[in-house]
Structures are given as structure tokens and as C-alpha cells.
Specification:
The structure is a single chain. With 479 residues, this protein is of the alpha/beta class. It has two domains: 27-87 and 368-479, Aspartate Aminotransferase, domain 1 (Alpha-Beta Complex); 103-345, Aspartate Aminotransferase, domain 2, CATH 3.40.640.10. It contains 15 helices and eleven strands. The protein has helices spanning 6-25, 38-45, 56-67, 89-101, 111-126, 141-156, 161-164, 183-191, 212-224, 247-257, 294-297, 312-319, 348-383, 412-426, 453-473; strands spanning 134-138, 173-178, 199-202, 228-235, 260-265, 289-292, 305-309, 387-392, 397-402, 432-436, 439-445. It has a seven-stranded mixed beta sheet with strand order 1-7-6-5-4-2-3, sandwiched between helices. Strand 2, helix 8 (183-191) and strand 3 (199-202) form a beta-alpha-beta unit. Helix 13 packs across helix 15 (453-473). The longest helix is centred in the last third of the chain and has 36 residues, at 348-383. The radius of gyration is 24 Å and the shape is globular. The termini are far apart. The mean pLDDT is 97. Bound molecules: pyridoxal-5'-phosphate (PLP). Pyridoxal-5'-phosphate (PLP) is lined by residues 82-83, 140-142, 182, 184, 235, 238-239, 264, 266-267, 293, 305.
Length: 479
């Protein structure tokens, strides 16, 4: 082994596992996320490439002191920002084994192929999606959405886009999403050459879902203007509020209008497993394609997204290109024929291990519990003075404001940002803001089986103390 004999590797590996075990053991009590001290930051980013090798044990010391000590924070039970989960411990080991094997999971007769097929079968089952659909593990939700929408483009151009591009298409193709559709949908629209001007942003109804009546009107208007509506990209759980679009109604509309029905389920797709969401996902299994993110609500270590397309042959026809040097071992199609990557990481292993470790029942419980904890947060907000719940959607995200006496309406937006910044700097919890109805709100979202009611108290106590600190300093108005 270059530079390491088996005994040295073993010793190094044991130490690494001890470090990770220690890291996991201190999550409940330790800081969520700490600002990276300037000297450490400089050591990390300005270090010249060493001319000669460094002792790997010394490197592990650095990992311990300079890297593990300054995480993004999402493994912690008090991380409430964005949509980033705590990782499953067995998934961590899955990534280790995947790295040890370091295969290209492009396809062919190797264990990785069969493990990915099994994991995809289970994921489709979890989503109640038909098994004839083709799945593919990709880096995350953004690429999963892009992959699905690329298939949509292929189908809606009658297969011509591969040869001709979009140049010369006789009418402009229009895609519809909601005002709370994720930015990755617009990025995909850019990358696929549709252009933002051909993305219609449909207003929301009172529950922050895509307004289906307005969607219908927009489609009619575009047709009347000689344009070509091709796709609705709906959400099964928006990032801002967790709203789930009316999937069954949108499926009806897409069917009647000949539109591709795509669902972004990156955050909320697996919410279908929760006890509290019965009925809300009706119609999800009618989609032409769906993007989900095992690295969100299946708690799989980053990276792992998943694109699923009902028409497997259309997905293959969109991407398949098999050069001369890749002709062997092709009794069955390769995964690389269904997406952009040729060499592919063995992402499926961490999914396969995690799904078996917890089982379907375990996942149902964890996701149900996350939503119950969000309900608990709302109860706590209602019971605290000066907190206002702004959105309380069906999943694990809650938007709220802290408005103690002394904060004027003009100062309220800056005040939310300031108390979030102070809370995050404390290391006790980590949370972010978003905009709802033109106002800055604090947004608490967790996809984290470690989060308990006690963590919610830490969050709210820290925000409250931060608020009092801002008021005491007389700076509620200067962000
Ligand atoms: C609803 C939704 N769609 C797409 C994405 C993008 O997924 P990723 O960050 O895995 O690329 C996110 C990320 O939070 C999301 O919440």
C-alpha cells in the first residue's frame, strides 16, 4: 500500500473511527456550529501544497482540531437551517466502504449494480411510485430535477433536442412552477436552454401551494398566444413552508393538456411516509418524473439525490451514448445510460445500508416524529409571549417572528436577522431566515431524528436572549 502498510492503515483507521464515534457522541451536548477562527481559516485555505509527504497521524490531528471542530452543523439536533439532515451512522460507514471499493457504479456485473437496483426498488416503493419507472442516484435534488427535466425536454421535442438543440423550434416551450418553486428548477430551465422568460411563476394560494386555477389560466393564455406549454414542475414540499401542491389536480390538468407532470420532492417526497400527511400526496404516483433527495429526509450522508422517471425508455433515449471503449459487459443497460455521469460513485450503498438498518417502520417513525416535533415547536411558539407563527405547513418547517415590545414594524425585518446572527454565533443552535409575503421571518426546519423538545427550548431561549440583547444595545434598527 503506497506509503502505508496494512498495520499502519489499521491503526489509522481505528483512530479515525474513534474520532467519528466521539464526534457523534458529543452531538447532543456540543456546539451546533462555531465560527471558524481566523488563524484556522488561514491555515486551511492558504496552505501551500507540501513538497514532501506528511505523516498521516499528524493529518488526523489536523482533521480533529481544524476540520471536525468546525462543521456546517447539520448533524447536531439544534440545527434548524435550510434542509440538511443528520447523517445515519450506518450511512457514514457506507461511504467509507464505498470509498474503499471506489468502483464506478456505471453498470455491469458488479455488486454495486445490484445494490443500486435494490435501493431504487425500495425508494420507488416508499414513494408508491410504479416499479417500471427508472431511478438513478445523483448528487442531490438540483441534479435530480435537472435530470428529470432533461427527459421532459427530450420527450416534448419529439426526441429532436439531442440532434437539433432548441434552435429552430417553431414555438416557445413554456414550463410552469410556483412562486415557491425551488431555485434549482429555474437553474435547470437555464441549463436546458428554455430561458427564464419561458418559465411561468404561478402565484400561491392561501396555503402557499401553486394556485391551480391560475395555472390553468396561464396555460390557456400561453396557448392563445401561440406558445407551447410543455411541463408543470410542482412541489411535494416547498423549502419555504413545506406546502405540498395539489398533485392530483395538477396531474388531471397535465393529462388533459398533454403536459409533462414533474414533481420536486427533494424536501418533502419522503414525507409521504409520515402518519400526519395522509391524503396530501394523492396524485404523486401519477407524475411523469419525480426528484427526491435521500440526503434530506432519508438522513443519508451528503451527497445523494434521486431522479425517477416513469418512462424508463425515454430516460435512456435522452442520455444513452455508448462509445466503442464501453461495449463490454452489457447484458443489461448501464446506469450511465440514464444520466449525465459516466463514472459514478457508489452512493447506493449508504442508502441500501440505512434502509435496512431502520426498515420501513423505522423511517415512518423518524419522519413522523420530525413532523410531531415541528408541531411541538408551534405549540411552544403559541405559548411564548411576543412570538408570532407565520406559516405552519404540513411538514417539518415553521416560519415565525419574534416581536417583543420595543421593536417597531419598520425594525422588525432587521431585528429577525440580527437575532438569528447572534443565535448562530452562540453555537447553541443554528437557524436561518427567509421571506414570506414580503417579510423577513425566522425559518425553523429539521430533518433530524436527534432533535427533541428540549432542543426546541434551547432554540427559543437563545433567540429570546438574543432579542433582549439587541434591544438592550438599542440597535434593533441597524442590521
Ligand atoms: C424543495 C427543494 N428542491 C430542491 C432542492 C435542491 O436540492 P439539493 O440542495 O440537494 O441540490 C432543495 C434543497 O433544499 C429543496 O428544498
Amino acid at each position: 500500500m503506497a506509503g502505508l502498510n496494512p498495520e499502519q492503515f489499521r491503526a489509522l483507521g481505528y483512530r479515525a473511527i474513534d474520532m467519528i464515534a466521539e464526534q457523534l457522541a458529543q452531538l447532543d451536548e456540543g456546539a451546533t456550529r462555531l465560527p471558524v477562527p481566523l488563524d484556522i481559516r488561514h491555515r486551511l485555505e492558504d496552505q501551500p501544497m507540501p513538497q514532501t509527504g506528511i505523516d498521516p497521524f499528524a493529518l488526523l490531528d489536523r482533521v480533529q482540531n481544524e476540520i471536525l471542530a468546525y462543521p456546517m452543523g447539520n448533524p447536531s439536533p439544534r440545527f434548524f437551517a435550510w434542509v440538511n439532515s443528520t447523517p445515519t451512522p450506518i450511512g457514514i460507514l457506507g461511504d467509507l466502504f464505498a470509498a474503499a471499493m471506489s468502483p464506478s457504479a456505471a453498470g455491469g456485473d458488479q455488486a454495486a449494480t445490484y445494490v443500486e437496483r435494490a435501493a431504487l426498488t425500495w425508494v420507488k416503493d416508499m414513494l408508491s411510485f410504479p416499479q417500471e419507472a427508472q431511478g438513478l442516484f445523483v448528487s442531490g435534488g438540483s441534479i435530480a430535477n435537472l435530470t428529470c427535466l432533461a427527459v421532459m425536454r427530450h420527450v416534448q421535442t419529439g426526441g429532436k433536442a439531442r440532434q437539433d438543440g432548441l434552435v429552430g423550434m417553431d414555438s416557445k416551450m413554456i414550463v410552469y412552477t410556483s412562486a415557491h418553486g425551488h431555485s434549482c428548477i429555474e437553474k435547470a430551465i437555464h441549463a436546458l436552454g428554455f430561458g427564464s422568460q419561458n418559465l411561468r411563476v404561478i402565484p400561491l394560494d392561501e396555503q402557499y401551494r401553486m394556485d391551480v386555477a391560475k395555472l390553468r389560466e396561464a396555460i390557456a393564455q400561453d396557448r392563445a398566444a401561440g406558445l407551447k406549454p410543455v411541463c408543470v414542475a410542482a412541489s411535494a414540499g416547498t423549502t419555504n413552508t413545506g406546502a405540498i401542491d395539489q398533485l392530483d389536480d395538477i396531474a388531471d390538468l397535465c393529462e388533459a393538456e398533454g403536459l409533462w407532470f414533474h414533481i420536486d420532492g427533494a424536501y418533502g417526497g419522503f414525507g409521504i411516509l409520515a402518519e400526519q400527511t395522509e391524503g396530501l400526496y394523492k396524485g404523486m404516483n401519477r407524475a411523469d418524473s419525480i426528484a427526491v433527495d435521500p440526503h434530506k429526509w432519508l438522513y443519508i450522508p451528503v451527497e445523494c439525490g434521486c431522479a425517477i422517471v416513469r418512462d424508463a425508455e425515454a430516460m435512456r433515449a435522452t442520455f444513452s451514448l455508448v462509445p466503442a471503449y464501453l461495449q463490454e459487459d452489457r447484458a443489461e443497460p448501464w446506469f450511465s445510460e440514464y444520466g449525465l455521469q459516466q463514472t459514478r460513485g457508489f452512493r447506493a450503498l449508504k442508502v441500501w445500508l440505512s434502509l435496512q438498518h431502520y426498515g420501513l417502520d423505522g423511517y415512518r417513525k423518524m419522519i413522523t416524529n420530525d413532523i410531531e416535533t415541528a408541531y411541538e415547536l408551534r405549540r411552544k411558539l403559541f405559548s411564548r409571549r411576543d412570538y408570532e407563527v407565520v406559516t405552519a405547513g404540513p411538514l417539518s418547517v415553521t416560519c415565525f417572528r419574534y416581536l417583543p415590545t420595543g421593536v417597531t414594524a419598520d425594525e422588525a425585518d432587521d431585528f429577525q436577522r440580527q437575532i438569528v446572527a447572534l443565535t448562530n454565533a452562540s453555537g447553541r443552535a443554528f437557524i436561518t431566515t427567509t421571506m414570506i409575503d414580503g417579510k423577513v421571518v425566522i425559518r425553523a426546519c429539521h430533518v433530524n431524528f436527534r432533535t427533541t423538545a428540549a432542543d426546541l427550548d434551547v432554540l427559543l431561549d437563545t433567540l429570546t436572549e438574543a432579542g433582549q440583547q439587541v434591544l438592550a444595545s438599542g440597535h434593533a434598527h441597524t442590521a
